[in-house]
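Researcher: I'm comparing several assemblies side by side, and this is the next one on my list. It has 930 residues spread over three chains. Same procedure as the others: predict the full complex and return the structure.
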Amino acid sequence: MQINPIHLKELAALINAKFIGNEHHLITGLNEIHRVNTGDVVFVDHPKYYNKALNSAASTIIINKEVECPLGKALIIHPEPFTAFNILCEHFLPKNYSLIETSNTAFIGHNLIKMPGCYIGNNVSIGNNVTLHPNVVIYDNCVIGNNVIIHANTTIGSDAFYFKRREKNYEALYTCGEVVIEDDVIIGANCTIDSGVTSTTKIGRASVLDNHIHIGHDVEVGEQCLMAAGVAIAGVCKIGNKVTLWGQVGISSSVIIGDGATVLAKSGVNENIKAGETYFGAPAGPAKEKMREIFAVKQLPNLISKLYTE
Amino acid sequence: MQINPIHLKELAALINAKFIGNEHHLITGLNEIHRVNTGDVVFVDHPKYYNKALNSAASTIIINKEVECPLGKALIIHPEPFTAFNILCEHFLPKNYSLIETSNTAFIGHNLIKMPGCYIGNNVSIGNNVTLHPNVVIYDNCVIGNNVIIHANTTIGSDAFYFKRREKNYEALYTCGEVVIEDDVIIGANCTIDSGVTSTTKIGRASVLDNHIHIGHDVEVGEQCLMAAGVAIAGVCKIGNKVTLWGQVGISSSVIIGDGATVLAKSGVNENIKAGETYFGAPAGPAKEKMREIFAVKQLPNLISKLYTE
Amino acid sequence: MQINPIHLKELAALINAKFIGNEHHLITGLNEIHRVNTGDVVFVDHPKYYNKALNSAASTIIINKEVECPLGKALIIHPEPFTAFNILCEHFLPKNYSLIETSNTAFIGHNLIKMPGCYIGNNVSIGNNVTLHPNVVIYDNCVIGNNVIIHANTTIGSDAFYFKRREKNYEALYTCGEVVIEDDVIIGANCTIDSGVTSTTKIGRASVLDNHIHIGHDVEVGEQCLMAAGVAIAGVCKIGNKVTLWGQVGISSSVIIGDGATVLAKSGVNENIKAGETYFGAPAGPAKEKMREIFAVKQLPNLISKLYTE
């Protein structure tokens, strides 16, 4: 998320933190690590990820240890970077939910069919020739392209499911991102597409989603993908173009699936899939291997009987 | 779907297509292949299915090749039968969504309890003593029997998930069917039951559905079935009477399940199941066989250790 | 559920039933077997469960056979205890749905953010600083704590999925319980949490639920649990504190999961899990064993080839 540019010194003061770097160093955005750009603040609180954060595109790093500051960057030292980042996001991007059905700040194109019970939040942008069936909910800041159809009781832009475990509770990472639905997308009934944390969850042009589909925060779905009912994709996955996910498939967070890949029904994917491959199983592997395994397992009871009677 | 009867010549003219047959040959309906009756137009665009379409009950076949016309039938030759069929459906059965909570053309029986936020579309028919919990959505043309209870945020009659892959997008088969919910059915919260494409998705008398259940287009569920939470049934399946599907079961399209069969939780069914059988697994098989396999697999690590140390 | 105290003789008369015990024996509540207290009526209709019911905390047992009456208790003899119990529940706790968005009998704390399309039923209690995103539905009698966030299109308090199979239909056990959501809980979009039958379904303090989660009737979820998208928990389960359930996990009814346990994605749990253990698979077992089995199965096709060619 872009913010009005602010100097390092002023930003650090907002969270009462010490900083390392030029006090006039400029901050122009807030993003979490998967989506950082030059000018952004990012946070890191585990030594395992220090290098990733320090070497990312981010210009300023909130960190819980005084380390060497990379050239041209700045550090903000804070005992709880996660919380510090949340405070900054809430400061610069405060929530102010609209309590009316269609916010006055929504931008709506031509020929919207908006059926009863739909909610359109602040700063939502809707293209031309869009159909929203009854009770569709679109949270603040989401962007819906042209010719999009969304079926009843679907939720677009709910908060990211991204937490830090504390002793007494889970602290949620403050969601201030958006969902972008590109042109010609069709979304079924009772689906949920979570907002990006500070950035974008994207459904690419002409993709079609059946009912009861869950898309986690910051997922990027390519163009012309097809997902059957009950698919659940965890946060930060990257799904290529023309990918097919059959019914009830689940995909773990941060998995990358190549163009034209297919995942067969009920599979659980926890590793990347190359373009054009077909996967099956839970945990999923190449479908041909899995089919061989299934065939082998069918023979196993008799094999064991035989081995133990020989 | 029935349409006002029309002669072959006039119908073919609507899609600028050549026809084979008597120009006064009468067309009385439009249906896709799984649901055709005498008098219907059907479409077929793949040689693999030519015979099925030509020998079906349909009286008129839209086809992308000049083949021999069966006796007493007619052919319409069109390079894109799928698109041609869509054009005809839209022509004869145009959508005209109601933008008010309860359509003026809905027929509602006695003692309806309609809680806030429910949507009742055009030509919906609702029997006596029905309870619609808040935010239930019923699309156009659906038929709800007597004594039916539908829990909150459930969607009845959303579009079929039926597409043809084109180079640049997915072309949707135009949905103009309906859902029929028979008497004494109970449907849980946040369920989705898709409309038949040109025909009917049916939930049989006294069946009970838990929450988060998905029923695809043109599925026929028999009487007194029980489905636990998270079941997803793909399009065109036929589920017998007194079938039990436990939690999170998935069923592939066009599967037939016999009366009194049981599918255990989390199974994925991709083959027909005979009456009275119990299935388990993904892919599912007879539960006894699967339990033997599971027992055998438990022994496998030690068996392998033993074989490799002998 | 507590009721106004009533004497045995009067209660039995409501269902035209014979009783065994002091006619002035007092009844102060109605509960099903998993949740009975002193003073309650419970029902039992299968010899297999007679002893459990007779020896439970319940003071009065509706039973379909004349058995010996435990000391200090009373029996009500009825050919259909399930139906008799339903009649009593409907008599003492009749449903009277509110047909307005926020019932006049709801108790609402400070700083409620209630977005459009939400429904708040009779006798609902809502704490301070609660956020209800659009189209959240809260059925009668539910209790929402402080600082709770519920995302769009979620349903709280739908009827228990608890039926008795009859020759011609399923008879539903009458739902007259509640859901209690404790402080600091976050619930995602399009979730469903069923009511207790006569008692409470509970989500413990500071637990966080992702989207599309189903919690069955009378489930007790502890504090600081985390559930990823698509989890489904069947009725009467007991989930400890700090339990983690990853995506699309399913749990069979009445399972008990100990504090700090973890269930990996897509697992189906049908047995109790001890505190601190990690489970995987469907049916689930200790994750380490399952991983060994998966590794062994990968080797199996080659092992079989080798065995058959030796």
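Model: For your comparison table: Residues 107-288 of chain A form a domain with the UDP N-Acetylglucosamine Acyltransferase; domain 1 fold (CATH 2.160.10.10).
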